[in-house]
From TrEMBL:
Protein's UniProt keywords contain Nucleotide-binding: yes
Name of this protein: NAD kinase
Gene Ontology cellular-component annotations: cytoplasm
Nucleotide-binding among keywords: yes
Annotated localization: Cytoplasm
Annotated organism of origin: Roseovarius marisflavi
Pfam families: NAD_kinase, NAD_kinase_C
Enzyme type, top EC level: transferase
Length: 253
């Protein structure tokens, strides 16, 4: 059975060249009528495509025309129909972020990889951390902190020395960025259903910004983060190269 494919591409020249070649060879279907969306670009474009199409309930198959491409498959034009037919589907839930900025506005956003808080001035941030309404850390002095999903645990979380999480695990990673006090705090593993709240201490003196998959909110007073199981993102990977295999491979290289 031939799948109806909607091709989308980033603005990168290599992605646009691939888009032209693939649509000429396999045609182009409107997204709402497609069986699968093929995204051409890097991980950033893949995240953008997943967010943009989350209400369509259509799986997305990425082919790498960017740099890292952790969420992407290798690029090839010749065997695309066969690869799509044999692809393995992974379903992931995003994080929901809710934050209040100093002007009193409430901001909401979704993040497939992570929600991070980062200092926005010369001085270290001071954060108070509560889990499910219970205070767990009265003061974390740091450059920032983040909450990552298993799918996002190899990204910024891994760079900040956070753990890589198995894709099927019902846990989130809470990781500090350059923690100063407690100096050797190694972060925490939290149940997937946990509600994480960061309160910014001394926001006037030590401003903090929040980021949910590159959606920025400046001068936040507090941020709440929780997994949103009402939203499911469907990602296709070549057989034998799914997220579980990629996460394991990352830990042995």
């Amino acid at each position: 059975m031939t799948r109806k494919i909607a091709f989308v591409a980033s603005d990168a020249p290599t992605a646009q060249t691939a888009l032209a070649a693939l649509t000429q060879r396999f045609g182009q279907t409107p997204e709402a009528e497609a069986d699968v969306i093929v995204a051409l670009g890097g991980d950033g474009f893949m995240l953008h495509t997943l967010h943009r199409t989350q209400n369509l309930d259509i799986p997305v198959y990425g082919m790498n025309r960017g740099t890292v491409g952790f969420l992407m498959n290798e690029y090839s034009e010749d065997d695309l129909p066969e690869r799509l037919e044999a692809a393995v589907e992974e379903v992931i839930n995003p994080l929901s972020m809710r934050a209040e900025s100093r002007d009193g506005k409430i901001h909401t956003a979704l993040a497939i990889n992570e929600v991070s808080l980062l200092r926005a001035g010369p001085q270290a941030a001071k954060l108070r951390i509560s889990i499910d309404g219970r205070l767990r850390m009265p003061e974390l002095v740091c450059d920032g902190a983040l909450v990552a999903t298993p799918a996002g645990s190899t990204a910024y979380n891994n760079s900040a020395h956070g753990p890589i999480l198995p894709i099927g695990s019902d846990v989130l990673a809470l990781t500090a960025v350059a923690a100063f006090r407690p100096r050797r705090w190694r972060g925490a593993l939290l149940p997937k259903a946990a509600l994480v709240r960061f309160d910014v201490i001394e926001p006037d003196k030590r401003p903090v910004m929040a980021d949910a998959d590159s959606r920025w909110v400046e001068d936040v007073l507090w941020v709440e983060i929780q997994s949103d199981e009402s939203i499911s993102h469907r990602i296709l990977f070549d057989a034998g190269h799914g997220l579980e295999e990629r996460l394991l491979r990352e830990q042995f290289t």
